[in-house]
Write a structure and sequence with these properties.
With 752 residues, the protein is of the alpha+beta class. Helix content is 23%, strand content 20%. The strands form 8 sheets. Strands 1, 2, 21, 28, 29, 30 and 31 form a 7-stranded antiparallel beta sheet that branches. The chain has a 7-stranded antiparallel beta sheet with strand order 3-4-5-6-17-18-20, covered by helices on one side. Strands 7, 8, 9, 12, 16 and 19 form a 6-stranded mixed beta sheet that branches. Helix 8 crosses helix 9. The longest helix has 22 residues. It is globular, with a radius of gyration of 28 Å.
């Protein structure tokens, strides 16, 4: 699976900025009884914008004014139903739920005489392994005859296999053939997940292992039918009922309507997986049965998502067959018009099943891991304040979408302060110091003045709200000079936090444990090991070291002493000062080449990239960079200022300085990788706000990649320029609004 992501350029960026925000305030937070809705999806900031394209659909103009559709929103080119949008009565959007929609299995495969997969081994009722025949499918591929590409016209037949119960075989033990290699006697060349392999017992254990996948969309996918209903619904209740048919689409859904109501639901036809539990238990997982890991495919079979005669997930089908059981609609997290006056989702845990750090001890298993909750908590605080003041509007929602408060900084800088104060007290105290205390004191005295100045700047930053300002003046941020002190503190904070993560985890050789979602899992683990610093081990850490009263991860492997958490905190700041004082490694890269901290502006290192979608997903395959370069939006196309003096560091920047740090609402996440730069290419690929009241639509939206693929068009980069300043374009919903603001029109006629 990770290899597949690699080939599409996704795995390397996984965890950098994937996610989304969506929220809605009911009439409880407005003065006129309206609802106000906001959504932004965090995907590639590509040119053109990945997935979404703004569009309107109106069948009333030339049809029935009373029964026709008038929709405005965003869709995927070629697919009519809108992902996020409004029909004037209801507005909707979605975020990624992190529900567990697939199971992976380790198989034991038996080959036939020709070396092809023939059967898999599966335990019968008595526990004895039996051979169960695989099901073979032959897919024909027509290869074009193109002499210039040395392609010979032909039909290629590629077989694939599933297990007896429908699990797709995607991997098999064997060797990768050399170019031009011809399989030997009793061998065959097969393709698994697109990769060539000659199956065989490579490790000599007498078993040919395989990897299979069961995915709920293999059984059913009703997403287009469901979203099509969204286009005709008039209330949030109707929208919620429409999600009853959802199968194969694991999303959080948010709705608001023009009566002032709001709703959240995350329903998706998800397997119960009770057959993976220990016998007689409703919680926990049997040996080899944890769905968050690879399952034992010799003992646990696949699941099926059944549909009834009307195309809805069939909850009754699982009464006699555990493999067909789905979690009931009425047991999913759901909220309509809560007393607090709003609903929200930011990829956080809506059901609370992960809050105890254990996903196995609940009767319902939905999935995970979910985002740690920084974005969700910031949004929650802001919405509560708006409801209390009846302050919800298009403008206040857009302001929240532009929020750059550092919740990570607020949580961890106080820990750094306490560690430095501890180190200072040891260094200035009467002594004597033991070996552990002496190491911490020595770290502090190695750069006393620098550490004290850095901490003073960070304290002032926290006092001012911990806003991750850029500090670099541009055409979209003319007031940046007023926030240079905060920009310096942000630069110090981000480099320190990145060094802290490196000091704690980089020596542990556990990257594979974080591979599924590096950002979420690192942040979650970091929180738990710092909260678990207590002799009582309150977080029940498996890594707890009773001798130190904290996680063993704080120790540096390969050294004689057992380092402590305060050493990691202070040492990471020492590392930070060394890095930021060092000479630059290139334009916008490395240190600042000076000990004067006032020059360490965050925006000179933290920039957003608007790359061509070809570059993001194809890299430089066969010279694609030559073509992709013409479609990127950089400072050569949108200069940062009308004139930049010689020697001004802005003159060297290819990309656009931006505020923000880790897990802000306005997602702008730099990488955790110390070997990488601070630029980012994943973030809000749209910022939609809609206010509804009695069928009247008011709102705005922006797509940084624009609507025009023509580089000579003024609309090729106009939305990027607005997006950089957290500005947007008004929504034009009615025909009159469209006609009044149109720049032109095109008429399409059927060819005679």
């Amino acid at each position: 699976a990770l290899d597949s992501l690699d080939r599409f350029g996704l795995h390397a960026e996984r965890g950098v900025d994937f996610g989304s925000n969506a929220w809605a305030i009911s009439s409880a937070g407005t003065t006129d009884g309206s609802s106000v809705f906001a959504a932004d999806g965090h995907l590639a900031l590509s040119v053109p914008t990945l997935i979404f394209y703004q569009l309107g659909l109106d069948t009333r103009v030339f049809g029935d004014e009373t029964t026709g559709r008038r929709q405005l929103g965003m869709g995927i080119p070629g697919i009519i139903p809108m992902g996020p949008g409004t029909n004037g009565h209801v507005v909707w959007s979605q975020t990624y739920l992190e529900a567990d929609a697939s199971d992976w299995y380790r198989e034991e495969i038996v080959l036939d005489a020709a070396g092809l997969p023939m059967s898999s081994r599966f335990a019968n009722a008595g526990g004895t392994l039996e051979d169960r025949a695989l099901v073979r499918f032959d897919d024909d591929y027509q290869i074009a005859n193109v002499a210039a590409l040395m392609s010979v016209g032909r039909t290629e037949t590629i077989p694939r296999w599933t297990t007896f119960d429908g699990r797709h075989l995607l991997g098999i033990e064997g060797r990768t053939p050399a170019v031009g290699e011809v399989p030997g006697t009793g061998e065959s060349l097969v393709y698994m997940d697109g990769q060539p392999v000659i199956p065989g017992d490579l490790d000599g254990d007498g078993v040919i292992s395989g990897l299979s996948l069961d995915y709920l969309a293999f059984d059913a996918s009703n997403v287009l039918a469901m979203i099509d209903v969204f286009g005709e619904a008039t209330t949030v209740e109707e929208m919620g009922e429409a999600t009853r048919r959802n199968a194969g689409y694991t999303q959080n859904f948010l709705f608001a309507d023009d009566t002032g109501s709001v709703m959240y639901t995350g329903y998706n036809a998800t397997p119960c997986r009770d057959y993976l539990r220990p016998a007689g238990s409703s919680t926990g997982w049997a040996v080899g049965g944890n769905p968050q890991r690879v399952l034992d495919g010799t003992r646990f079979g696949g699941f099926t998502v059944p549909l009834d005669a009307n195309g809805f997930p069939d909850e009754a089908a699982g009464a006699t067959d555990p493999s067909r059981c789905i979690i009931p609609f009425d047991r999913w997290p759901r909220s309509i018009d809560p007393d607090r006056g709003f609903v929200l989702t930011a990829n956080n845990d809506l059901g609370g099943t992960s809050l105890d750090g254990d996903l196995s001890n609940d009767e319902l298993y939905l999935g995970g891991p979910w985002a740690i909750g920084y974005r969700a908590d910031t949004i929650h605080q802001r919405l509560a304040s708006l409801v209390a003041s009846d302050g919800a509007s298009v403008e206040t929602m857009a302001t929240l979408q532009a929020d750059h408060q550092s919740r990570v900084g607020e949580q961890y800088v106080p820990l750094l302060r306490a560690a430095i104060e501890h180190a200072r007290a040891l260094a200035d105290g009467p002594g004597p110091l033991d070996a552990d205390e002496a190491r911490l004191a020595a770290l502090y005295t190695s750069d006393r003045a620098g550490l004290d100045e850095a901490l003073s700047r960070l304290d002032a930053w926290l006092l001012g709200g911990a806003i991750g300002y850029s500090g670099v003046t541009t055409f979209y941020d003319l007031d940046a000079a007023a926030h240079t002190d905060d920009a310096v503190a942000t630069m110090i904070h981000v480099e320190w936090f990145r060094n802290l993560i490196a000091r704690i985890f980089d020596d542990e050789d556990i990257d594979l444990a974080f591979d599924f979602d590096p950002r979420t899992l690192r942040l979650g683990t970091l929180r738990r090991i710092f909260d678990g610093r207590d002799p009582a081990n309150p977080e029940m850490l498996a890594s707890f070291n009773p001798a130190t009263g904290e996680s063993i991860f704080f120790d540096v492997r390969g050294t004689t002493p057992v380092e402590r958490s305060d050493e990691a905190l202070v040492g990471a700041l020492v590392d930070t000062l060394v890095t930021l004082r060092a000479p630059p490694e290139g334009p916008g890269l490395g240190g600042f080449g000076t000990t004067d901290m006032s020059a360490w502006l965050w925006g000179l290192r933290h920039q957003v990239r608007f790359e061509s979608i070809l570059k993001i997903y194809a890299g430089d395959v066969m010279g694609v960079e030559l073509l992709a370069g013409a479609f990127k939006i950089d400072t050569g196309r949108l200069p940062l200022a009308d004139s930049i003096p010689d020697g001004d560091p802005r003159a060297e920047l290819a990309w656009f300085p931006r505020p923000g740090d880790f897990d802000d609402v306005d997602a702008a996440n730099p990488s955790f990788d110390r070997s990488g730069d601070y630029t980012y290419a994943y973030g809000p690929n749209m910022r939609m706000v809609v206010q509804l009241h009695d069928g009247v639509v008011r709102g705005q939206n922006i797509l940084p990649g624009g609507q025009s693929g023509r580089t000579m068009s003024p609309h090729f980069d106009d939305q990027a320029a607005l997006w950089l300043g957290n500005d947007a374009i008004p929504l034009r919903y009615t025909v009159d609004e469209i006609v009044t603001n149109a720049e032109g029109r095109e008429a399409f006629h059927r060819r005679p």
